[in-house]
Amino acid sequence: MISNPRGTTQEAPAYGVTWGGVPMFARRAMTVGVATLVAAGVAGPASAATTASAAESVSVIVREAAGAGDAAEHAVARFGGTVGKQLEILGGFTAEVPSDRLGALRAVAGVESVTEDAGLKLSTTSIKDFADQNGSLYTIANKVTGASAMWDAGYTGKGVDVAVIDSGVVPVEGFKTPGKVVYGPDLTLEAATPARNLDTYGHGTHMSSIIAGRDSAVAGTGSGDDANFVGMAPDARIVSIKVADAKGQTDVSQAIAAIDWVVQNRNKNGMNIRVLNLSFGTDGVQDYVLDPLSYAAEQAWHKGIVVVVAVGNEGFGTQKVNNPAYNPFLIAVGSNNANGTADTADDVVSAFSNDGDGTRNPDLVAPGEKVLGLRSGGSYLDTTYPAARIGDRLFRGSGTSQAAAVVSGAAALLIQQRPDIKPDQVKALLTGTANHIPAATAAQQGAGLVDLVEAKDAPTPDTVQSFKVSTGLGSLEAARGSVHVSVNGKLVKGEIDVRGKAIDVRKLAEGIKGGLNWNGMTWSGMTWSGMTWSGMTWSGMTWSGMTWSGMTWSGMTWSGMTWSGMTWSGMTWSGMTWSGMTWSGNEWA
User: For this structure, is 166 an active site residue?
Assistant: First the structure.
């Protein structure tokens, strides 16, 4: 979610996007690595003078409209500028342009946007410079949630895998330890590009760092280390399944497929997926018992995976947490401003955090305001909101997404401490030891603020949830809520998936429950770039964060349909919101 300078909230950057992606307009050769790219904005048409300019040139990123050809490049030359590197993933190029020609360039037909990249200059500031801020992970882990008490007792998340269905992860410092990140399938159109598995949007890296980031220089458990970045469960491993591209664009059907992959592969190939972080949601309102997205998340829960979901950022008064957070089996997390202390007397539940209806409320809250996670440099969010960059490594963001990530890390710590604990027991332990916030209602805070100091020493509850089990036999369209994505110019709407294939919810439900995927297909029978998951040993493949032994996903097929031949034509997606993003004062915070 995004808050504009006037304080109101809207979905992602200027487009109503909730977690969307950049259409693949340009088809130019690209040689620049994704981690070094800078993203750009977008704007509209006109022409401009060609008189010489004495103004100083500035570095910009120019995005081009679909079908505009080389109009933008020609305009740059007319205004006395020079064209730099082509950025195929972003549909544009870098350029040097006289500063007094920027307005004219933005008005040229075929130019979607011109964004100055001066804000990308690296800072010499360090992690330590920001350690005492309320939203720093040092403060959150050492002073607010009590995560460091778990570390001191020997529990750092080691041996626990946390699956993150999001926009990918870039291997910045904090994720460079060999094996720190395992990449599952990339279900976006970027799977056929050098951006495969990487985070061109900027959200997934941020969330993953909150959950399990750990700088290479961290010694011991990381407790009390204010000079390096240390996430909530610093020795947990991230399993990244990418479903959102450079504008956060995706469809509910992709999210369901990703959850299904997590369920089917939770214990395969050396993985031990015990936690699933879903920092997104839809505004769909059908009963959780019927909703296919809710059903998929619940099936993961019944298979022994603790599913942590953001409640959404629509704000107080909604009386509705998002889908799938409204499924009562799951852990629904709201955002809180703890003011840097463990004492809840000064706490305020975030104004953007969805409250419940008295029947289904957030289960608990966690720090979610101005959280300093790791940057995905050059990603869409990083370049669209330069004021959110803190130093050269951090990015400031607020929302229930960040709060959910904090709780996912907390769950990983408790699971390492109690390897046999079940999801129902993890939820009861977290809610039973949470601290009540005097200034908030139950509909706003649930049980209160997560408290690992108390949870660490509390007995494991003998709890079994008895809610009505979902069937998933409702409508995929209703699960999308109000916003839809277009693929190849056609709106993805109705009982179809993002490939345009009809979905039989009965087969879909049976598939997720029994190991089948779409229309009777199995993951083991589906090909992903010519390789099958069935019996795959991964020998010769590197799990150390980046490579899959040369294997490419560009030929990835989903039940026989090739993703790489599809193009996005919509700016919005299926109503799922990256419930972790509010923006104020031009920064992701």
Answer: yes
Residue 381: exposed, middle, or buried by beta-carbon count in 10 A (0-12, 13-18, 19+)?
buried
Burial (CB count within 10 angstroms: exposed 0-12, middle 13-18, buried 19+), residue 543: buried
Alpha-carbon dihedral sign for residues 512, 514, 520, 525: positive
What's the rounded Cα separation, in Å, for the pair 485 and 500? 12
DSSP annotation string for 541-574: ---SSS--TT---TT-EETTEEGGG--B--S--S
| Residue 395 near residue 389 (C-beta atoms within 8 A) | yes
Q: Are 496 and 503 in contact (CB under 8 A)?
A: yes
Question: What gap in Å lies between CA 314 and CA 317, rounded to an integer?
Answer: 9
Q: How far is it, in rounded angstroms, from Cα 507 to Cα 497?
A: 13
Which tokens hold the place of 209?
């760092």
Q: Give the model confidence (pLDDT) of 349-364 as tens digits.
A: 999 999 999 999 999 9
The active-site residue out of 186, 203, 363, 382 is: 203
Q: Based on C-alpha coordinates, what's the Rg of the chain?
A: 23
Provide the 8-state DSSP code for 144.
Answer: I
Question: What span, in angstroms and rounded, lies between the C-alpha atoms of 504 and 475?
Answer: 10
Contact predicate 207/333, CB 8 Å: no
> Which residues, listed in sequence order, are joined to residue 275 by a DSSP beta bridge?
162, 306
Which residue in the list 3, 136, 161, 166 is annotated as catalytic?
A: 166
**Is position 401 annotated as part of the catalytic site?**
yes
pLDDT in tens, 99-155: 888 888 888 888 888 887 644 444 446 899 999 999 999 999 999 999 999 999 999
Residue with tokens 């603020």: 449
Q: How confident is the model at residue 51 (pLDDT cuts 50, 70, 90)?
A: low
* Token pair of 395 as six digits: 């990015």
Cα 414 to chain center, whole Å? Answer: 23
Of 528, 508, 527, give the one whose Cα is nearest residue 518: 508
Three-state SS for 584? strand
Nearest to 253 by CA among 42, 492, 525, 88: 492
Catalytic pick among 113, 379, 398, 401: 401
Name the strands in the sheet holding 111-116, side by side, starting at the edge strand that comes first in the sequence: 82-87, 92-98, 57-64, 111-116
Distances in Å between the alpha carbon of 500 and those of 257, 289, 323, 411? 15, 25, 23, 37
The answer to whether the beta carbons of residues 526 and 534 sit under 8 Å apart is no
Characterise 46 by phi-psi region: left (phi > 0), alpha (psi -120 to 50), beta (else).
Answer: left
Q: Which domains does the chain have, with CATH numbers?
A: 1-14+149-218+231-589 (3.40.50.200)
Q: What is the pTM of this model?
A: 0.73
Q: Over the stretch 215-268, which tens digit does the pLDDT of each residue have?
A: 999 999 999 999 999 999 999 999 999 999 887 878 899 999 999 999 999 999
CA distance 211 to 443: 26
